[in-house]
Amino acid sequence: MSLLKKILIGLAALLIIGTIANYGLSYWISRKLPNIIQSNKDMPYNISYTDLDISLLKGNITVLNASLSPKDSTAQLKSGAYGQIEKIRIEHFSLWALLKNNKIKVDNIIIDKPEVILYPKENKYNVKGDLVKPFKNTISTKAIEVNKGEFILLDTIDNTKLKATNISMLFRNIKIDSTTIKDNVPVKYSSYSLKCDSLFYQVDKQYNITTHKLNISDTAITINNFKLTPEQTRIEFAQSIPKEKDQYNIEVSKIHIPDLLWGFVNDTLYIRTPLVDLTKVNAVIYRPKMAPDDLSVKKLYSQMLREIKFDLKTDTIKLNDSYVEYQEQQSYDKPAAKVMFSDFNATIKNIYSPINKTETPQTTLDVNCLFMKSSPLSVHWTFDITDKTDAFTIQGKLQNVKSSVIDPVAKPLMNITTTGNLKEIYFTFNGNRNSSNGDFAIRYDDLKVKLYKKDGKDKNKLMSAVGNLLVKNDSEDELKETEVSVERLKDKSVFNFLWRFLYEGLKKTLLPKIISGGD
User: Fold this and answer.
1) Which of 307, 304, 250, 309 is nearest to 281 (CA)?
2) In angstroms, rounded to a whole number, what is the distance separating the alpha carbons of residues 350 and 438?
3) CA nearest 83: which of 134, 48, 128?
4) Closest Cα partner for 108 from 43, 158, 173?
5) Sign of the CA dihedral running 326, 445, 430, 397
6) Rg (CA), the chain
7) Has residue 17 got a pLDDT over 90?
8) Is the CB of residue 62 less than 8 Å from the CB of residue 30?
9) Strand locations in 77-159, DSSP E?
10) Which residues, 6+ apart, have CB-to-CB distance to 43 below 8 Å?
């Protein structure tokens, strides 16, 4: 027999043996994989599929039409996670890890078109117990990729609590072992990204959140068309609250955090970013005064930040081209008074908690906007979160306020209307958790006032006449200045504190005897 013939026969024999071995190993693996997964005592899921394709030469496994369901759930009473997955591609798996350790070790897992529904269960969901722990001794991978996924979380009556569509996710250099499983974040990775076309989240019975084009990575967040929307009408809200409370309706065209760092150090969460950029915020805040007063002590912002229990550091928050409106309704038979701030641009610096900080810079807020859509307003606000007296200073300048603009606010809130113009208002408001003092100055011309009785319907002719005798028609192009002191009502917000300071300044400069009660 010639050498060539021997070589050909040998190659043929090897090919046949290799084919048989490949088929045999593939068949063995196809039987082995389900047993490894299902035999894990920590695995709470049943996993099935319609087809399994194994390529030993490429080291790839393809699973078609996989299904996931909890082991302890029934068709009548669903509980836990249910899933349908069109395709799972496992790339470059280790045959040695499978043979020696009964562990599925691969380079990449690619999941195409998963549809997952999470039903409520008796115990709260836990990332470590429900997701990480069942797989940590069974599957090891360097990367997980999800394409065109959909996720739904249901409540106890099968209403949608959370829904995300067209989800794409990628985690790289994943590590899950006996050390990571004990950590606050039980999965370690070098990078991750998450994208989805839309997100719906029911916060509670009063609000839901929706977004479009959500994009999150380990270093940045971008959210488009964020909306916090009330579930109740204003009348329903006013009638449902046991105490006074604000209702919020907020839209943000774009939220961008370009450089985000977060994690845990010794069980303490840290969140740090140099910038949070908010574009076209539209915020409407509604306060129904028909409900009983909330007499609890309200914390000032410095105290709120000082009491945060994690490490927060945000260098700058920017609001661009935004709109803020506050509405206050005194009774059901009266329309709400509206205070509007348009062309609203703000820069807030040094938002932080004191945890793990060696430097404590002042927090500052600078605002430029139009008051009631026509009058330029600028505000500079400063405080130090480490100051336990909660001292702060608010300086402001307001220009060219026409009576036709402020009457819709002044009449329902103060039972006053005016004619004429307030040309300039300046104020420096120095406050703390107990009291305030500062300066107030005003320049005006052609000013007259009308005072109304308590019901706001009938004019108080006598008081209006006497008041106009006391008020000069104009300030002769000079600032009328006064010093103002106001005690804080601790059951009210800082904005109520500022409003009372300004109101006191107006009384002292315009109507020192009539409105202030003759003191």
Assistant:
1) 250
2) 25
3) 48
4) 173
5) positive
6) 33
7) no
8) no
9) 80-91, 104-119, 139-154
10) 37, 71, 134, 135, 138
Number of residues in the chain: 519
> Which residue type occupies 136?
K
Residue 517 burial by Cβ neighbours in a 10 Å radius (0-12, 13-18, 19+): exposed
- With left for phi above 0 and alpha for psi between -120 and 50, is residue 263 left, alpha or beta? left
pTM beyond 0.85, yes or no? no
Taking only the tens place, the pLDDT of each residue in 74-89 is 666 677 889 999 998 9
Q: Which two tokens stand for residue 497?
A: 């504190």
Among 405, 418, 514, residue whose Cα is nearest residue 466: 514
Q: Which of 120, 45, 116 shows the shortest CA–CA distance to 77?
A: 120
Closest CA to 450 of 436, 437, 435, 462: 462
Which residue is it, tokens 């060539």? 4
Provide the token pair at 55.
């390529």
Q: pLDDT band at residue 503, thresholds of 50, 70 and 90?
A: confident
In the block, tokens 């190659």 appear at 11
Q: Can you tell me whether residue 183 is helix, strand or coil?
A: coil
User: Distance between terminal CA atoms of the chain?
Assistant: 128
- Distance between CA atoms of residues 103 and 33, nearest Å: 9
Region 472-500: what's the mean pLDDT?
Answer: 85
CB within 8 A of 398, min separation 6: which ones? 371, 375, 376, 377, 422, 424, 425
Residue with the two structure tokens 């609590």: 161
Contact 317, 351 (CB under 8 A): yes
3-class SS of residue 338:
strand
> Parallel, antiparallel, or unpaired: how do β-strands 139-154 and 268-288 relate?
unpaired
Specify the DSSP element, H or E, that contains 31: helix 3-39
pLDDT exceeds 60 at position 518: no
Q: Per-residue b/e over 34-66, b at no fewer than 16 CB within 10 Å?
A: eebbeebeebbbebebeebebebeeebbbbeeb
Give the Cα separation of 296 and 319 in Å (integer).
Answer: 30
CA distances from 510 to 14, 279, 446, 513 (A): 105, 39, 13, 9
Which tops the pLDDT comparison, 341 or 419?
A: 341
Which pair of tokens denotes residue 453? 């009785």
Determine the Cα–Cα distance for residues 265 and 310; give it in Å rounded to an integer: 10
pLDDT value of position 319: 98
Q: For residue 205, what are the CA distances in angstroms to 100, 227, 236, 517?
A: 53, 16, 12, 45
**Contact assessment for residue 113 and residue 89, using Cβ atoms and an 8 Å cutoff:** no
Query: In this structure, how many other beta carbons lie within 10 angstroms of the beta carbon of residue 33?
Result: 21
Inter-residue contact 64 to 50 (CB < 8 Å): yes
Distance CA 171, CA 124 (A): 25
pLDDT at 334: 84
For residue 144, give the nearest of 164, 175, 169, 124 by alpha carbon: 169
Q: d(Cα 210, Cα 251) in Å, to the nearest integer? A: 10
